[in-house]
Amino acid sequence: MITISLCMIVKNEESVLARCLDSVRHLVDEIIIVDTGSTDRTKEIAQGYGARIIDFPWNDDFSAARNFAFSHATMDYIFWLDADDVLLSEDQEKFLSLKCTLPSDIDSVTMIYSLARDERGTTISSVRRNRLVKRSNHFRWHGMVHEYLEVWGKILNSDITVLHQPIHNHSDRNLKIYEKQLAQGKELSPRDLFYFANELFDQQQYERAISYYEQFLQTKKGWVEDCIAACGRLADCFYALGDEKQALRYVYQSFEYDTPRAECCCRLGYYFLKKKKHRLAVFWYNLATQLTIPSDSWGFIHHACWTWLPHLQLCVCYFYLGEYELAYKHNEKAKEYVPDHPDVLHNQCLLESILSIHSTFPQTDQ
């Protein structure tokens, strides 16, 4: 069985740290907490879990703090978490099984990072991250903000999910770090251009976001998934600014990087639905239903676009086309994913009434 060091960087996390450590304390062999300046009970809570606590002066560089934490690990593998992350019981069991069976030649294990869930606990947004890495490889973190861990070798993609459950919103923290870098005359890397644009987008600074997304794409050095995501965000920016022509241009541009993603197909479906071009909308929503998430995808996944949303929108399209049986069929498909969605329930009631009136609804199925 391998041994595992848990490495974390924290600051004023008294509201979430115990929850995180409760979910993993029995899975790891040592806990290393790098504190970047807490003024609350964070250190006291960490001590209660037998953590090794090391101070690190904060310098607006997340990679520096994470590399510092990794440098103090002593076990075979390093597992990293943020304080507002947890592993649910099912994933704790999977993690323990992995720990007992992981071959020694594995250099990194990826896990699913669930960024948001709906009211039923279903993940609606996720991304895959390298989470458990071999210490002897001395992998390094890169990037002051939205840092990434550079790994190589034999990588295992697991189905273990790390759940992100933030309580506090650090809404402008990363934006300020980027702004500070720009004020100091530092040049942003292609990756930082993309993530800075994301921060601007989240703050609804759409014009500036457009500028930096376009700069990112013009470098032609971006990761494919980031290029596709940038095109989608550019479309969203232009939609918000009322420029549908430019929005449409960037959705189509996303197809230059790889096969269509369901998110982009749904954007096109929505565009044509708004234009009341229902047959064109049907085409793009139907395509979305036929796609599967690429097995090697490391990009952000908006699960609604890959599951229930295109079916719900197909129900709307077919309704306007007067094809009520097809509308009902797709509403039922959407219902398989989101049985309590108010739009699904409304559509079901309406369509059952219409189909009953037209004597085409199969009475035995009611």
From TrEMBL:
<feature type="domain" description="Glycosyltransferase 2-like">
    <location>
        <begin position="5"/>
        <end position="112"/>
    </location>
</feature>
<dbReference type="InterPro" id="IPR001173">
    <property type="entry name" value="Glyco_trans_2-like"/>
</dbReference>
<dbReference type="InterPro" id="IPR019734">
    <property type="entry name" value="TPR_rpt"/>
</dbReference>
<dbReference type="InterPro" id="IPR029044">
    <property type="entry name" value="Nucleotide-diphossugar_trans"/>
</dbReference>
<protein>
    <recommendedName>
        <fullName>Glycosyltransferase 2-like domain-containing protein</fullName>
    </recommendedName>
</protein>
<dbReference type="InterPro" id="IPR011990">
    <property type="entry name" value="TPR-like_helical_dom_sf"/>
</dbReference>
<dbReference type="Pfam" id="PF00535">
    <property type="entry name" value="Glycos_transf_2"/>
</dbReference>
